[in-house]
Prior knowledge:
Oligomer: single chain
Helix content: 40-55%
Largest sheet: 8 strands, mixed
Structural class: alpha/beta
Number of domains: 1
CATH superfamily: Alpha/Beta hydrolase fold, catalytic domain
Number of helices: 11
Order of helices and strands: EEEHEHEHEHHHHHEHEHH
Amino acid sequence: MSTLNVQGISLSYETHGDPEAPPVLLVSGLGGVGASWGTQIARFTEKYHVILPDQRGTGRTTRALDGHTTRQLAADMASLVEELVVGPVHVVGASTGGAIAQYMALEHPRLVRSLTLSSTFARFDAFTRREFEVRRRLAAEWDRRDLLSAYALFLFGPRYAREHPEAVVEWIDRAAALPAHPDDRRIGLARIDMIAAHDTFARLREIAQPTLVLCGEHNFCTPLPLSEELVRGIPDATLIVFEDAGELIELEQPVRFFTEVSGFIDGLRDPARG
């Protein structure tokens, strides 16, 4: 684990794989911790130079109480890419990470080679807003393990939860075991407010990078209509739907997820890298 002082914080990150390989920035979801990519880290490492950050307020990065906007987190990620001199990068963003990735493409375009937007959104709709109003109340009142157990109902598809109950419990146990910090609840609420405020809808047409959009058919956290809206707005974006999957498609269908993303990345010809 390494750190860089950028944007007023100490940003913690890991790098994996061959530095000469195409660079891939993996931007995680609401929890913000790079390790949440699980087995995808090893898969991407076999083919790419992987940059794996902990976002502002999470993991080993400074537990800042300010700066919780998707635009600011995009600036954090862009500063990391610049400091490491690895851009332009293929940005793979899951959920919250996909919202951050949109601002990277919009406001730091020279650093972004392509976008993969997984289980994400340009803005909340009525359903998602009601969902996160409930989730915010739970986050304000419940202890960590009970909260994660409730979150699992939103994040895993019904068939996966039925057929792999032990994997769902393992996910809850692993997340519950992460080191606690006195400001975790306050930061968690700020991050929910952050994604509820995210809105790039009016600017989607400005995204010029090749874009792949992925979503589970039974995603109850950031449902399929939100991904369809992204594809309608981003020029030439492609949508792939994962049947019988929920929000965490990278965990539920790991082989297919990597196959789709790596196929997309490898299909792009970058004259600067050969």
